[in-house]
């Protein structure tokens, strides 16, 4: 949890700062609102007070506010200063060291990281004076959330609208999060089901929606990893991965994974890969006898192949598998971890209605080198984050082992 000073200046987007404060609080942060005089013309200080449950700072020379030289006290305790919206006026003041109110004084006094969300008329944003001030601040290490394009309150259409509160909160998150060991690492994630065709119109599939794998890929992107997402058929919007490969069958997924795994630091197999596939008939199978027998052939075990390949090599990616089970969850998952020679197995009870396939929540057990650890029911995004925390630990241990050039054999 961080202490964040949220500077609010006098722009029409000031009302959105209320949502920024709420978003930051939802992530567990403590927020102190610092309003300029003109901001109070747009939103009442009471609104921020009610939300932040803290006194709102509106004036540098308020009686009682200076007993402990408040701007200095706050400057040294905050973890982040956000200014949203940041008007052309405040940007100019911050760039030029003018400290004539609490917010601008706080900026000059603090050594905490600073995040600005500019918002103004399009021509003002493009003005040379404003650009120069933004460049000065950027060169000083100030971070920005770019304004959006669209209808502006002044009636113009163009760039200048305050970024959405979610974007500002996400940008704050990135700054506050300690650098992830996954930053710059090559992470391959598989997701979704595979469809095994038995004629041109029919297939054998499974109930996987891809939500868990996509959440893992999105979280890896957020942590700065170079993500390759290999996805079976889903209706989901892929995250901003470096490469997204759409496949249909287990055989296609096998080819897509095996051809890339050699360059990866981490491979996470969240896909529900078919274990058996029928021979595809060239024409639609016609109805005839009362029963129809399909002969299925075993598909390649992608994770198993990766595990065996790593056994015989001095190097190889961290391997993570999922075990979807309806009974004997822990024992079966532990068995798979040993059989496939992987680092972590995420055991998933797919018989539950609130976890597993096609729901937004999940509850899993992570089985790793140090035993098993349950992750209670929560959103798939949170489960993804918890899983990647464990992957980072394995990666750290893995890195030190490869550095020493020792073998990677793990059970
Ligand atoms: N997996 C794979 N290739 C397959 C089947 C599964 O890479 N042909 C991967 C899955 O993506 C998952 C792990 O292996 O990460 C375990 O999958 P699961 O279906 O639970 O286990 P199986 O090994 O297929 O065994 P079973 O279906 O008998 O439980």
Please state roughly what percent of the residues sit in beta strands, choosing from under 5%, 5-15%, 15-25%, 25-35%, 35-45% or over 45%. Answer: 15-25%
Query: How far is the first residue's CA from the last residue's CA?
Result: 37 Å
**Morphology:** elongated
Give the mean pLDDT: 90
The side-by-side strand order for the widest beta sheet comes to 12-11-8-13-16-17-18-19
How does this model look, in words?
The protein is α/β, with parallel strands linked by helices and 411 residues long. It folds into two domains: 3-176, Flavin prenyltransferase-like (Rossmann fold, 3-Layer(aba) Sandwich), CATH 3.40.50.1950; 186-404, 3-Layer(aba) Sandwich (Rossmann fold). The protein has 14 helices and 19 strands. The chain has helices spanning 16-26, 39-42, 45-52, 70-77, 88-96, 102-109, 122-126, 128-139, 165-176, 211-222, 250-261, 302-311, 329-340, 380-403; strands at residues 3-8, 30-35, 80-86, 114-118, 143-144, 148-151, 157-161, 186-191, 196-197, 203-204, 226-231, 243-246, 266-269, 276-278, 296-298, 318-325, 344-349, 361-368, 371-379. Helix 4 crosses helix 6 (102-109), helix 5 (88-96) packs across helix 8 and helix 10 (211-222) crosses helix 14 (380-403). It is elongated, with a radius of gyration of 27 Å. The relative contact order is 0.08. It binds cytidine-5'-triphosphate (CTP). Cytidine-5'-triphosphate is lined by residues 250, 269, 271, 273, 275, 299, 301-303, 321-324, 336. Cytidine-5'-triphosphate binds at residues 250, 269, 271, 273, 275, 299, 301-303, 321-324, 336.
